[in-house]
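TL;DR need structure tokens for one chain.
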Amino acid sequence: MFDIIFTIILVAVGIAGGTVGSILGVGGGIIFTPTLALLGFQPTSVSSTSLIAVAFTSISSTVSYARLRRIKYDTASKLAILSAPGAVLGAYLSAVISTELFKLIFSVILISAVIYMLFNSHFKERKVEKGESQYHQPVAYFCAFAAGVVSSLFGVGGGIIFVPLLLIMLGMRMYEAAPTSQFVIMISALIGLATHVMLGHPAYLHALSLGAGAFAGGLIGAELSGRLRERLLQIFLSIYLLLVSCGLIFQVAEDAL
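>> reply
TL;DR here they are.
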């Protein structure tokens, strides 16, 4: 009975993450990972299980955006190549990082995601001149490597890094940044996932449950995207992520006492 209940919980988490990720473009991993951590999964299982769902979601999104010809392949290819080593490194780090450190670092990532969501209107409106964009490129490429590490280590896909990076440093507009980011996430997630699989990390049954929910959630999100107030959903998600962040920090403090 416990296994059935647990499976239902994972499917529900997948639906929630897929729906929110589809509407806001932040990626379902930002919900998958902290929830799995709160449920008691170890870092290797958290990152690899979440990354499976993220990989399938990004593949679906990339195929859709490719048909619309909205992916900037020249930029996306460079970022994907630079994120690949980071994705491999992140998978190995997930096997050695302590649960406490995993939760603390991810709490910081959650707070960063909240800041991005609450202030993303500023990012969308910012315009970057061509010269400034070229000046920022070396920093952007380093950030791509770091995003690969974060993606594979925490199973979040890296969208919360790639999208602001494309908007702020490389001067893309939002309708180009989101598709381009999805392409990079797809490559990074698949490479990170392949490394996790070779290391024997994924919990496949749990990942299947999460992925099935995420697939359904993606379809739901696509249907609801024009009917819900995006800003209101961003606020509710920000509150949820802040509460989860506090919960993770509380767990670490409790274990330390």
